[in-house]
TrEMBL record:
Keyword tags: ATP-binding, NAD, Nucleotide-binding, Nucleotidyltransferase, Pyridine nucleotide biosynthesis, Transferase
Pfam families in the cross-refs: CTP_transf_like
Name of the molecule in the record: Probable nicotinate-nucleotide adenylyltransferase
GO biological process, one term: NAD+ biosynthetic process
Annotated function: Catalyzes the reversible adenylation of nicotinate mononucleotide (NaMN) to nicotinic acid adenine dinucleotide (NaAD).
């Protein structure tokens, strides 16, 4: 494995259950942390990796802060040894989630990955590049984010993947299941968003 790739991947050991939370983290905030800690508990994960993207293909990136600034802010917000912040996508130069997942699965086949997303992302998941292949590569955990619940579960992707949905009381076994498999996790009542923490000029409002 190239050294530069190894350096961008957080410490790990064979057999670990790793949650992957991708995003621009512009800015990172307490909901990112809460979602991660919730996933660690409910999915019985060993770690959650925050994959800080260079830019989101589905979003306007004109107000995106520098990657180094977002990385440091993410580390400050995470404040948990089980949550690791990575710039992997910048290092391996992937633009789409499917490419990142393929790289991780190929190079770290001994790890068990779960893709984590909020319900707002499930609602638009059908717009992601090769979304069906993503679902076929890794189990997915969707964290409920009211008032997005109905829109998310009625979305094209949720309907297409309905037969692969795992009961919520079996969430702790999700990392061991072959993909496609996904679970919708309820009970976390936080509605912060990075959009709401940005000023019109793109600057951050100074809220963690």
């Amino acid at each position: 494995m190239p050294r530069f790739v190894a350096q961008a991947v957080p410490p790990h050991s064979e057999g670990m259950r790793i949650g992957l939370l991708g995003g621009s983290f512009n800015p990172p905030h307490q909901a990112h942390r809460a979602i991660s800690r919730f996933a660690l508990m409910r999915l019985q994960l060993d770690r959650v990796w925050w994959l800080v993207t260079p830019g989101n293909p589905l979003k306007e990136n004109g107000n995106l802060h520098e990657l180094g600034e977002r990385m440091q802010a993410a580390r400050d917000v995470a404040d948990d040894p089980r949550i690791e912040v990575s710039c992997l996508e910048s290092v391996i130069r992937t633009r789409y989630t499917i490419d990142t997942i393929n790289t991780l699965r190929r190079r770290f086949s001994g790890l068990r990955f779960v893709w984590i997303m909020g319900a707002d992302n499930l609602a638009q998941f059908h717009r992601w590049q090769d979304w069906r292949r993503i679902a076929a590569q890794v189990p997915m955990a969707v964290i409920d984010r009211p008032p997005q619940s109905f829109r998310a579960l009625a979305s094209p992707a949720a309907q297409a993947l309905a037969r692969y949905r795992v009961p919520e009381n079996e969430a702790g076994l999700l990392a061991d299941r072959p993909a496609p498999a996904w679970v919708f996790l309820t009970g976390l009542k936080l509605n912060l968003s990075s959009t709401g923490l940005r000023n019109p000029d793109g600057s951050w409002k100074g809220t963690k």
